[in-house]
Amino acid sequence: MKRRTVITSGAVAGAAATIGAASATPAHAFAADHLTAAERTNARRPETIAARRLIFGVENVDSRTGLLPTDRIVISWITNSSFAVAVAGRVVLLDTFITRLEVTPGRTPFVIKDLVDVAPSAVLIGHGHSDHAENAAYLAGKTGATLYASEETCGVLRSDFERIGEDPVIQNDPVARFPRDASLNLVSVTAAGSVPGTQVLRLKFLEPFAQVVAFRHLHSIATPPDPTYPRNTLIPPDGVLPVDPRDAALFPVGVPLRPSDPPVRGQMNLRTGGGAGGPVAIFYNITLRTGSHFSLGWQDTIGALREGKGSAWPDGTPADGKRITDILERLAPLDFFSAAVGTANFLNNGLRDLIDYQQALRARIFVPNHQTTGGSDVGETKAVMHYAIYLQQLRNMGIPESEWPDIRWTLDPADYLKPIAFDVSRPDTTTHQRRLAQLRHFDKFPYAETRAPLP
Question: Hey, how many other C-beta atoms are within 10 angstroms of the C-beta on 199?
Answer without folding.
Answer: 17
